[in-house]
Amino acid sequence: MKKSLFIGFIALTAIYACNSEKKENTEETSDAEVTENVMKEAEEIAAPNTLTSKEKEEGWKLLFDGKTTDGWRGYQKESFPAAWNIDKGALHIQGSGRGEAGAQDGGDIVYDQEFADFHLTVEWMVDSAANSGILYRGKEEFDYIWKTAPEMQVLDNKHHPDAKLGKNGNRQAGSLYDLIAADPQNFKGHGTWNRAEVIAKGNDIVHIQNGDTVVQYTIGSDEMANLIANSKWADIGNDDWGNIASKGYIALQDHGDDVWFRNIKIKELK
Length: 270
Hints:
By secondary structure, the protein is α+β, with helices and mostly antiparallel strands. It is built from three helices and 13 strands, in the order ααβββββββββββαββ.
């Protein structure tokens, strides 16, 4: 009898040990699955020129796929300028050294759809002493789109002379060009990716640079009218520049320097 009880005890112990081992293995598998899912999610978030599942659900649209120039064309042109190319998954304007005139086969590019209220995100990187811009709600009425469109400045603050021009830093990276200085000024430096965001809702506009809100303004306000009257915009041949269109094109500027743009995404706001 004692021998039978002992054998039974051993059998129960073995079963318990086996079940415990299975439980531990199950927990280990579960942890591994969680880790794998987290890694997949991180990869999805980090993958350039793609939309995550969450972004798709939220209504974001990809304006550049990293492989083609579909949707983009030259300002006041039907074709895409040859001075722009795709370099390492980014739209790249090849430096011409000709400043705003750009290369003969260059010029600003626009996305061929007008947007009204939106949240735009762009990652940009500049070469040393490079200058460019992200323009929005622009029209094709003048020789340059900046004559109708507000510009979020793209600049190497350390090496480009424009950083010291204007007033109080209002030509530095992230600024509403020549009007409102980006504050705080958090440009990461040339050769490094910076993240720009523009939120436009009615007449209210916000610039976000590298996660910080750096500019806020209201189109048509007295403040804007005073700023425009005391800026380069007062002499550009567009007397009504302050009456920025409620809907227009998004553009990337060719200012004669090497600049790269990627992760260009937009969400239209209602």
